[in-house]
């Protein structure tokens, strides 16, 4: 009986550990996602910063 109870507690502890690991994994994945979104946004800003002056010069000097 004690062994059975010990098994139940160890399983619940194990599930707690699995849940903690899943939470950590989720946090890491969310961090990666945010980082990739930041990279996309940074690339978009750089692209727009390059395209807008180019369009301006094309329209300014185009007869």
Word description of this protein:
With 63 residues, the protein is mainly alpha-helical. The chain has a domain at 36-63. The protein is built from 1 helix and no strands. The mean pLDDT is 76.
Please write out the topology.
Blueprint (H helix, E strand, L loop, with lengths): L1 H60 L2
Task: Explain briefly what this protein structure is.
The protein is mainly α and 63 residues long.
Number of strands: 0
End-to-end distance, in Å? Answer: 93 Å
Radius of gyration: 27 Å
Q: Characterize the main sheet.
A: none
Number of helices: 1
Shape: rod-shaped
Order of helices and strands: H
Q: Low-confidence parts lasting 5 or more residues at pLDDT below 50?
A: none
**Helix-strand makeup class:** mainly alpha
Arithmetic mean pLDDT:
76
Fraction of residues in β-strands: under 5%
Report helical residue fraction.
over 70%
Name a few traits of the molecule.
single chain; 63 residues; mainly alpha
């Amino acid at each position: 009986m004690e062994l059975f109870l010990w098994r139940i507690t160890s399983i619940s502890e194990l599930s707690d550990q699995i849940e903690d690991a899943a939470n950590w994994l989720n946090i890491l994945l969310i961090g990666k996602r945010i980082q990739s979104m930041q990279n996309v946004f940074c690339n978009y800003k750089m692209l727009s910063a390059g395209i807008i002056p180019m369009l301006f010069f094309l329209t300014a000097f185009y007869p």
